[in-house]
Amino acid sequence: MASLAVPKPPARTRRNLGGGVGPIGLGVASLWLSLIVLLPLAAVFTKSLEAGPAEFWDAITAPSARYALLLTTAISALVALINVVTGTLIAWVLVRDEFRGKSLVNAIIDLPFALPTIVASIVLLSLYGPRSPVGIHLYATKPAVIVALAFVTLPFVVRSVQPVLMEVDREAEQAAASLGASGWTTFRSIILPALYPALLGGAGLAFARAIGEFGSVVLIGGGIPRDTEVASQYIAKQIETDRPASAAAVSVTLLAISFVVLFAIRWFTKRKGVA
Amino acid sequence: MSTRIALRTAALGYLGVLVLVPLAMILYRTFEDGLVAFFQSVTTPAAISAISLSLTIVAIVVPLNVVFGLVTALALARGNFPGKGILQAVVDLPFAVSPVIVGVALILFWGNDGWLGGALPVIFSLPGMVLATVFVTLPFVVREVEPVLREIGTEQEEAASTLGASRWQTFWRITLPAIKVGVFYGVVLTVARSLGEFGALTVVAGGVAGESQTLTLLVHARYIDDHNTFGAYAASTVLMGLALVTLVLMALLERRREA
Amino acid sequence: MITVSNVSKHFGDFTALDDVSLEVPDGSLTALLGPSGSGKSTLLRIIGGLEWADAGSVVIHGDDVTNVPPQKRGIGFVFQHYAAFKHMTVRDNVGFGLKIRKTPKDKIDARVDELLNIVGLGGFAKRYPSQLSGGQRQRMALARALAVEPKVLLLDEPFGALDAKVRTELREWLRRLHDEVHVTTLLVTHDQEEALSIADNIAVMDNAHIEQVGGPRELYDRPANPFVMGFLGPVAKVDGTLVRPHDIALRTQPDAGTREAQVMRVSHLGFEVRVDLELSDGKPVFAQLTRYEAAQLELAGGDIVWLALTGDSDARLVSEDDRLDAVA
């Protein structure tokens, strides 16, 4: 009865390896993720470096490529900044203000997430395009790209700031006010510090989204090389004209920029959180 | 209180200029010539074929995402294995990758000159469009289901097993009912994103009318190639209607989740 | 009977069970008593097949179930947090095991009704768990576990999540239920009062080991070591000897073998009177007297008294372990 000195099959390990799905499930999940996501992306990396680092450098510093990359980064940063201001404003109004139709406004915030990007492009064109009923003609201009990116990134900052704003300690604010602080001082010294991590996080997501955006820009931006052509449009064009190595190099650069920004923000927020 | 009114005006003004007025405009343009014109425009052979292709892609992508998403979510929520952090990061990767780069990656991996050169006829064909859509929608089911799995814990499943239920029975009778709202939510997001995907498909599909043209590609083609602005507006309105359905479903599910 | 032999279990570097052996007699209600982290829940889960032992064996009613999954062990398991199937009615919860066994529906219904009456949930069949109180949910869970007529019933801190009053009621109710059903039951608890009041047999665990097994009275009166003594009841320490504080008698006159002490404080706790004392070497100690004894002595702070170790229990341990100073 008590003669179990023989090591048993590692049943416990078997149960825990893949949780409820076992090692087969874990294998299936890993294979699936590899086949769908990881290996194709790896193929982009190897393709970009296939002909050596010099070719890579040439590909991303070709005049149109360099312009597209710089333009995309600059405009994405600007759009993130715009979102920080407008996102905080909208979140503030949604949390602290009361008016009829507020819940409808709250629902509209998510619309850009639900709307296909090409529809976003068309929607903006209908108002700011060639047949603009209000006489604003943005078609194929840099402001058009900015408007398109602001549209698709609208929810990020709002949705990350909103819950934090709800949690902000009203008593601390009232205490500040009772000590004579003006509304603006209270906002700056009490509320804003609490919002920093959410603002940074939301801005980072908006930036990452903007930098890779394609559909919303493609119609209204016009895609004029060295003027309004963003990096993703440049990449698509390289594929169309059968220059996959160049497309891969610019893709890798774009991914690198967005990861560096996302990691920097994560690192920064973490450090802030500790301090 | 004037600051409050000023802030409210600014916020609503921004939303109006950016979202509401353009949306109203496109609805006006779509219906200014009446419902019949709209209806004719979205029932042309090319439009019908685009709609059915879009739905076909959804019909393939959703079950794939549900099955593999559940397996992945279970492994991530319940498993304890080396490399789990990497798996977590890979799941989030599609959120951070430009759709155009997704298309490039698929061509370089599955395309004729790619790593799996010609294993699947992906370029300019349905498998490629499905792969691209699966790539961009991969995180949804996993990310909706995983936290629910953590929250419900394993006690109910353990109770079921002590009562004699096999793993499979436990999954169907206990686990799945407990996570079904999360699964629905993930499916809704997957459907919306699948219908709306454009960038990756542009690169992979080429968009031949009546063949490899989805609704989003149709919008683009009508506007750019056919100079059929009205047709583009009409097709966009169909997509917008679908997005609206998505939002309503999301709100309903959110309410159920909180209940 | 459940026989656990030489079971060990590690979680990474943590040793949850170290070569543990235990026998649970047929038809008994045995309690596994110990502080949190002592390994008692792990042992119960290994017996139930919800965890796997690194070494050792588990035998239930003569069948070696060491490598048998929980489905086939013939056990009923009750969890601390009820593990109610939230999306099922009370009826479906209780009938779950029978449905899995493909029992005909009319038989399931009859058995569920019978069980719901036993656990006092007769009118609740159509409710959902969220519409029940904690105590009702736990009774439902118990009915669910009993529905499949398990060979043994395993309860993991079943009353731990309930408030004190409900806990006491359910405890007594479980004892009565056990007297009716007589299924071999193993109950995990960290509450010594719970174990003493309902179990026939108690295994005290600490630090991955079973320290002592015995009846409630035996453990209380003849603890094998200071840990068991301290875990089962109050302990006072007089010159290195551990005694129960109610085994300390106070005299107003010195006598052979008595020990001088000064009364620091007298607290009247209803029937019991607690007397805090300071021995001549400055160490504190306390005694428990009955009201009657205290009234006879007419004690007040500052009085000098003499301690004698009396009482009918044999709970006397000589210990140099300073940890137990704190117990008093």
Automatic annotation (TrEMBL), chain A:
InterPro entries, alphabetized: CysT_permease, MetI-like, MetI-like_sf, Sulph_transpt2
Keyword tRNA-binding: no
Keywords: Membrane, Sulfate transport, Transmembrane, Transmembrane helix, Transport
Primary location group: membrane
Annotated ABC transmembrane type-1 domain residues: 69-265
Annotated compartments: Cell membrane; Membrane
Domain of life: Bacteria
PROSITE patterns according to UniProt: ABC_TM1
Coiled-coil residue windows: none
Membrane association type: Multi-pass membrane protein
Sequence intervals crossing the membrane: 21-45, 65-95, 107-128, 140-158, 190-211, 247-269
Job description of the protein: Part of the ABC transporter complex CysAWTP (TC 3.A.1.6.1) involved in sulfate/thiosulfate import. Probably responsible for the translocation of the substrate across the membrane.
Subunit structure of this chain's protein: The complex is composed of two ATP-binding proteins (CysA), two transmembrane proteins (CysT and CysW) and a solute-binding protein (CysP).
Family named by the database record: Belongs to the binding-protein-dependent transport system permease family. CysTW subfamily.
Protein name, as recorded: Sulfate transport system permease protein CysT
Organism, scientific name: Solirubrobacter deserti
Automatic annotation (TrEMBL), chain B:
Residues passing through the membrane, by range: 12-31, 51-77, 89-110, 122-142, 230-253
SUPFAM superfamilies linked to this entry: MetI-like
Domain called ABC transmembrane type-1: residue spans: 51-251
Membrane topology according to the record: Multi-pass membrane protein
Pfam families, alphabetized: BPD_transp_1
Keywords: Membrane, Sulfate transport, Transmembrane, Transmembrane helix, Transport
Subcellular location: Membrane
Summary of subunit composition and partner proteins: The complex is composed of two ATP-binding proteins (CysA), two transmembrane proteins (CysT and CysW) and a solute-binding protein (CysP).
Record function comment: Part of the ABC transporter complex CysAWTP (TC 3.A.1.6.1) involved in sulfate/thiosulfate import. Probably responsible for the translocation of the substrate across the membrane.
Protein name per Swiss-Prot or TrEMBL: Sulfate ABC transporter permease subunit
Native organism: Solirubrobacter deserti
UniProtKB/TrEMBL annotation, chain C:
CDD domains, sorted: ABC_CysA_sulfate_importer
Keywords of the record: ATP-binding, Nucleotide-binding, Sulfate transport, Translocase, Transport
KW Calcium (keyword) present: no
Domain ABC transporter: 2-232
Family annotation (Pfam families): ABC_tran, TOBE_2
Stored PROSITE patterns: ABC_TRANSPORTER_1, ABC_TRANSPORTER_2
Stated name of the protein: TOBE-like domain-containing protein
